[in-house]
């Protein structure tokens, strides 16, 4: 191996290692940020939805409940909403998740019993989803009037991470080529 090849290899090896480490760290941080953002968005949706649904259940306005469930599925990446009454009987579900009522009933029951939010990651039709269950209360100290489950897509996160990793890897290859040519 001649001297110029040794110099290029000596310079390129640390650069490639640094770029590789950067890709790994960046992908992990972006994944964590994206998941935290998805959780925050669902928590925000559930906070506003809890008050509206609780009031609709109190006033026995079931059609308003159905309308709210369908309207929320138009939100970015929200796949569906399932609403249960205080006895764990399903009241309404977005058309997109109707067939999956039994899968999410236990999560809704846990949220109602604990009067808190419950989040879990599940798989739906081969894609990861974030499921967020919460109790429906109108006032503080009041018994829950029911519970609801929001289902949000997470598949976009993996797609974004793959694109980011490819972009950073491409930049690394271009940088390595530039150093080796120079």
Account of the protein in words:
By secondary structure, this protein is an alpha+beta fold. The chain has helices spanning 3-58, 62-72, 101-114, 155-181; strands spanning 78-85, 90-93, 118-124, 127-136, 146-153. It has 4 helices and 5 strands, in the order H-H-E-E-H-E-E-E-H. Strands 2-1-5-4-3 form a 5-stranded antiparallel sheet. Helix 1 packs antiparallel against helix 2 and helix 1 (3-58) runs antiparallel to helix 4. The protein starts with a helix and ends with a helix.
Structure described in brief:
The chain is of the alpha+beta class and 182 residues long. It has helices spanning 3-58, 62-72, 101-114, 155-181; strands at residues 78-85, 90-93, 118-124, 127-136, 146-153. α1 runs antiparallel to α2 and α1 packs antiparallel against α4 (155-181).
Summarize the helices and strands and which ones pair or pack.
Layout: H1 3-58, H2 62-72, E1 78-85, E2 90-93, H3 101-114, E3 118-124, E4 127-136, E5 146-153, H4 155-181
Antiparallel strand pairs: 1-2, 1-5, 3-4, 4-5
Helix pairs in contact: 1-2, 1-4
Distance between the termini: 18 Å
Shape: rod-shaped
Approximate helicity band:
55-70%
| Major sheet description | 5 strands, antiparallel
Number of helices: 4
Average residue-wise pLDDT: 81
DSSP strand count: 5
Beta-strand residue fraction? 15-25%
Structural class: alpha+beta
- Oligomerization state of this entry? single chain
Unreliable segments of 5+ consecutive residues: none
SSE string, helix = H, strand = E? HHEEHEEEH
The spatial strand order of the largest sheet comes to: 2-1-5-4-3
Radius of gyration: 24 Å
């Amino acid at each position: 191996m001649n001297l110029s090849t040794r110099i290029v290899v000596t310079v390129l090896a640390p650069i490639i290692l640094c770029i590789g480490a950067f890709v790994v760290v960046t992908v992990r941080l972006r994944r964590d940020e994206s998941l935290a953002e998805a959780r925050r968005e669902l928590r925000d949706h559930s906070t506003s939805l809890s008050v509206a649904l609780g009031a609709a259940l109190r006033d026995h306005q079931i059609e308003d409940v159905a309308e709210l469930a369908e309207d929320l599925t138009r939100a970015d990446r929200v796949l569906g909403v399932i609403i249960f009454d205080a006895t764990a009987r399903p009241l309404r579900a977005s058309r997109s998740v109707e067939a999956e009522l039994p899968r999410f009933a236990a999560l809704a029951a846990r949220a109602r019993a604990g009067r808190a939010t419950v989040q879990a990651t599940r798989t739906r039709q081969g894609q990861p989803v974030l499921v967020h269950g919460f109790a429906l209360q109108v006032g503080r100290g009041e018994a829950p009037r029911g519970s609801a489950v929001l289902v949000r897509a997470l598949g976009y996160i993996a797609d974004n991470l793959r694109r980011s990793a490819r972009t950073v890897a491409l930049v690394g290859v271009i940088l390595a080529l530039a150093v080796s040519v120079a």
